[in-house]
Amino acid sequence: MTPVLEVDGLAVDYENGVRALDGATLTVSAGETVGIVGESGSGKSTLGAAVGGLLPSSARITSGAVRVDGAEVHRLRPKALRALRRDRLGFVFQEPIGSLDPTMRVGKQVALALRGRGGDVLSHLDRVRLSDPARVARAYPHQLSGGMAQRVAIAMAMACEPEILVADEPTAALDAQIRDDVLDVIFSLAAAAGTTILWLSHDLPAVGKRCSRIAVMYGGRVVESGTAAGVFGAPRHPYTAALVAAVPGAAARGERLTSIPGQPPVLTGPADGCAFAPRCPDALDLCGSRPPLVVAGDREVLCHRATVAVGR
């Protein structure tokens, strides 16, 4: 069976010389909920944009490919790419107000997203748990709170029941008290539609709670992937272990949080070796070469030490 999404050795460079993705690889099956985590600059947002052919003009794919249902996204002609976004993909971005047209009433925007698929505007606003759909439909985006605007964005993204929903930090700009409600809306609608979720986030506890699989990114590559329980419960890549140890609440009462020393790399081309090696307490001389992908059960780890870690 063809995976719904394949990211195969994807490398993306920007005009300023920065390499955002350095051979990222990820395979996602239909209906999965995949959380992509990592520090800022790890390549999460660039990967999410590449899935929908939404990379800015300053970005260039230098190698690799992104495939949705077997079709290479960056090779599609404009008409086919628009059809892909319209019929198979949905996006929820970090800034809800910025994702809506400020000159158009909300109801009209939702109606355009429906494109004659059935269901009226108010019913779609109601299912994202807006308390007064009629009032929201008459409003302009600037008249809504951040939480209301994000619910509208979710309603529009899920209007066509997409195969894949890319959610890029969808609750980062919202108050803590409404984040869980918004996430409940996203995951419940996706489950009902059979939609695959690709959730890009810094919130490891929330991702671990809601996602079936985790992909950890560092230096523009996926360095570890597997089940949420496995990756967070028994990390096999040193970077994953460092991330888990740095999560607020991971330390015992009275203990300090364990920070990750150093800074994430700013790549200007392919990394010669493991990008995490300069920050890794367990680095080997071998880490000066690019690590192999070690597969053990449901876990994939990009690390020279992974063979030892998985007991081989």
Q: Overview of this structure, please?
A:
By secondary structure, the protein is α/β, with parallel strands linked by helices. It has eleven helices and twelve strands. The protein has helices at 44-51, 78-87, 106-114, 121-126, 133-138, 146-157, 176-193, 204-210, 228-233, 238-245, 306-309, and strands spanning 5-14, 19-28, 33-37, 59-68, 71-72, 89-92, 164-168, 196-201, 213-218, 221-227, 293-296, 299-302. A hairpin with a 2-residue loop joins β9 and β10 (221-227). The longest helix is centred in the middle third of the chain and has 18 residues, at 176-193.
CATH-assigned fold name of the domain at 5-88 and 162-251 and 262-268: Rossmann fold
Give the strand order of the largest sheet, numbering strands 1, 2, ... along the chain: 6-7-8-3-9-10-12-11
Give the proportion of residues in helices. Answer: 25-40%
| The level-1 CATH class of the domain at 5-88 and 162-251 and 262-268 | Alpha Beta
What is the distance, rounded to the nearest whole angstrom, between the alpha carbons of the first and last residues? 30 Å
Architecture per CATH nomenclature, i.e. the level-2 architecture of the domain at 5-88 and 162-251 and 262-268? 3-Layer(aba) Sandwich
* Structural class label: alpha/beta
Please name the fourth-level CATH homologous superfamily of the domain at 5-88 and 162-251 and 262-268.
P-loop containing nucleotide triphosphate hydrolases
Mean pLDDT: 92
Helix-strand pattern: EEEHEEHEHHHHEHEHEEHHEEH
Low-pLDDT stretches are none
How many helices in DSSP terms?
11
* Strand segment count: 12
Portion in strands: 15-25%
Note the main sheet: 8 strands, mixed
The gyration radius over C-alpha positions equals: 20 Å
